[in-house]
Design a protein that fits this description.
This protein has helices at 27-38, 42-60, 104-112, 164-182, and strands at residues 89-92, 95-96, 116-121, 127-136, 143-149. By secondary structure, the chain is α+β, with helices and mostly antiparallel strands. Helix 3 (104-112) packs parallel to helix 4 (164-182).
Length: 184
């Protein structure tokens, strides 16, 4: 059995230094530690060691590791009541819809969307088109991405929209009506 020892041209066999942990003392901290050890101030060394151990623990582990991860989008908390994942990439026009900024209701309604053209009613009673545009995967059977489009380009079109969840609910309800009338 052989042990690898670094070669020393002066003939001294020196062991390899231990690997670094990534956490180090500042020069000032190191100097105070050496002074405390030389002066026999073991209480001070113990106190400083405790401070450094606490700082290291805080650095390696979050302060509140059991937080409920509550937000305005999930008031019940992600830890205990996680929202579902989106079934595919979703876009509202050119803007991606992210799970972190959608409510549970919006995600559930988005996951029910089927490609097609629908109509939604704005708060002022105006009915406008609402398009669910799919982009298919190479196999031609699986939806890779859904883009939602409706007119909202100019100032007149941007006014009086209901909530996003209300618009999605109206579209999903229309899908249900189409399924029922198609089966008759």
């Amino acid at each position: 059995m052989s042990v690898d020892v670094p070669f020393d041209p002066e003939g001294h066999d020196a062991p390899a230094p231990p690997p670094r942990s990534g956490v180090a003392f500042s020069n000032d901290q190191f100097d105070r530690l050496v002074e405390a050890i030389r002066g026999g101030q073991t209480d001070r060394v113990a106190a400083e060691a405790e401070i450094h151990a606490l700082a290291m623990r805080k650095q390696l582990r979050p302060e509140n590791d059991t937080h409920p991860d509550q937000s305005v989008f999930n008031p019940r908390g992600e830890r205990d009541h996680p929202r579902p994942l989106l079934v595919c990439e979703m876009f509202l026009g050119p803007y991606p819809l992210e799970r972190q900024t959608l409510t549970r209701q919006e995600i559930e309604l988005l996951n029910q969307l089927q490609p097609g053209s629908y109509e939604i009613t704005k708060a002022d009673g105006l009915v406008i088109p609402f398009h669910v545009i799919p982009r298919m995967r190479v196999d031609g059977k699986t939806v890779e991405r859904i883009t939602i489009a409706f007119p909202c380009a100019d100032d007149d079109q941007k006014q009086n929209f209901p909530s996003f969840a209300t618009m999605l609910r109206e579209v999903v309800d229309q899908q249900e009506v189409r399924k029922l009338t198609a089966s008759m």
